[in-house]
Amino acid sequence: IFPGNCWAFKGHQGQVVIKLPARVYLTAITLQHISKDASPSGTIISAPKDIAVFVSLLGTSGGVDADRDEETLLGVFTYSVEKNPTQTFPLKNMLLPRAFSHVKLLVKSNWGNEWYTCIYRVKVHGKMENQKASSQDQD
């Protein structure tokens, strides 16, 4: 019933890089915000709207190119305030058949709050590198 704490950043744009506990073959990302019913103000205009997900190739080669920071876009999606507060979006990882240890979430806009944007939970889905042959997804 109580909305709890969110990760808030100033304005309507922001980004976060998430370090995963292991290298993961990414398949999807889940984003969660509170519902209108759980919001003390009755609105959820601080929810993120347009979001992009990237992985970084930084340090993956281990050689001379390890200092290059090339980001690859795995998906662009819109979080809808009219749908379930927990929404999962598939990532386009077919072009990158490798595991990554960092994911960047770039929030391009929110639903109208000019002062801040809130994210309550982010889940990264995929298969851990050492369990690639397994059919079970890891969160």
From TrEMBL:
Q: Which SUPFAM superfamilies does this one have?
A: Galactose-binding domain-like
Protein location: Nucleus inner membrane
Ordered alphabetically, the record's keywords are: Membrane, Transmembrane, Transmembrane helix
Q: Would the keyword Membrane turn up in this protein's UniProt record?
A: yes
Keyword Iron-sulfur tagged: no
What would be one Pfam family of this protein? Answer: Sad1_UNC
Record GO terms (molecular function): protein-membrane adaptor activity
Q: What is its main location?
A: nucleus
> Which InterPro entries does the record associate with it?
Galactose-bd-like_sf, SUN1-5, SUN_dom
Record GO cellular component, one term: meiotic nuclear membrane microtubule tethering complex
Give the SUN domain ranges. Answer: 1-129
What's the name of the protein? SPAG4 protein
Q: What organism does the record attribute this protein to? A: Molothrus ater
Gene encoding it? Answer: Spag4
